[in-house]
Amino acid sequence: MAAETTTHQTAISENADLLRFATAGSVDDGKSTLIGRLLLDSKSIFEDQLEAVETTSKGKGYDYTDLALLTDGLRSEREQGITIDVAYRYFATPNRKFIIADTPGHVQYTRNMVTGASTADLGLVLVDARQGLTEQSRRHAVILSLLRVPHLVLAVNKMDLVDFSEEVYNKIHNEFTQFATKLNIPDLEVIPISALQGDNVVNRSEHMPWYEGPSLMHHLEHVHVASDRDLVDVRFPVQYVVRPKSDEHHDYRGYGGQVAGGVLKPGDEVVVLPSGMTSKIQGIDLHDKELAEAYPPMSVTVRLEDDVDVSRGDMIARPANAPKPSQDIDAMICWMTNEPLRPRQKLAIKHTTRTARALVKDVQYRLDVNTLHRDQETKELGLNEIGRVQLRTTVPLLCDPYSKNRTTGSFILIDEATGVTVGAGMINSGS
After folding, report:
1. CB environment 204-232: b (16+ within 10 A), e (fewer)
2. For the whole model, what pTM was predicted?
3. Which of 228, 260, 284 is the last residue in one of the domains?
4. Residue 214, preceding peptide bond in cis (omega within 30° of 0)
5. What phi, psi does 172 have (nearest 5°)?
6. Which of 68, 278, 288, 407 could be bridged to 32 by S-S, CB 3.0 to 4.6 A?
7. CATH number of the structural domain spanning residue 247
8. In this structure, are strands 18-25 and 97-102 parallel, antiparallel, or unpaired?
9. Average pLDDT rounded to a whole number, residues 114-141
10. Count of domains observed in the chain
11. pLDDT of the residue at 83
């Protein structure tokens, strides 16, 4: 038991230095400005980049440096002053590395927001202190909850425009906390900031002595995320069968992929699904070295003691808690294309490393992400809509509920004629 605990602690500490977070909020709430401020105050941009932004800001007649220009990279975004596509930004501090998904605020770009938040450890929702909670900010909180993003920060921005009022902050804080009780949000932090002036972004604000919590950067650096991953249920979808057939590795046979759950160690008894064949792990390789263990989200090559039949799309698991193969899938789906999703529709489905075909058996309801109302009268899903759908697949999928494992509990739907991704799904259950 002590060895098991040590293994888990090792996995947690190794994964703790990277945080993926997604920003969301209404238009003009200041998401791009906030990211620009984070990049600037954490010294993650070059001097010539800052000079270019300052020059552009002056050319536009602004009386301040528009930090949003650091992130809104597309010309059409700059012209409209909005974020359209998901923009990924990378930066680091001495304490942690960060990947930011800057997602759009417009309702018509819900699919982009879902894409950006689907792999996030933390969701950052901005609200304008002058406007308070809007339909969009509630909507984005609901989507982050549906996507099981385990940590949520509500950043009350533009506090400088309400004279850093504690009363305004408390009103928004209380209203959002009450709303959040209806959602699945395990960890919530509410932070008052001014992205434009830098208050409580990286450094604590002198203008808000009444606020006793952390600055945004301090919270991002110290929020505990690695233990959110499933380190108990072993899930290893096989991506590729590795057979070099070289003189140096003449008889080498391994199975490459990314660990989706649990901790793998040499000597562990495993089962290969869907065949049900059992074996033991002979070794775990990463590049040219052998590892003592592997855990999410490591990409490794696993060698087995027995010469069992394993191919792409199979899954290696532990016999005692293996996923049950399922062809009937109950899932929440975000629809991403203009042509509606309707019953009897046939699509390709990609789940971990396995691809199959799927038939839409039933659309149970469309979820109103503003009110959480379930519209059971509608039997189709339109662009950017989310609803509960029943699917039947041609081959069994080795899945878990999304609430248990975000990797083995998710899938995408593809139009076979065009090859375009038309939907993203979160599995409720399989049978």
Report:
1. bbebbeebeebbbbbbbbebebbebbbbe
2. 0.80
3. 228
4. no
5. -65, -40
6. 68
7. 2.40.30.10
8. parallel
9. 87
10. 3
11. 41
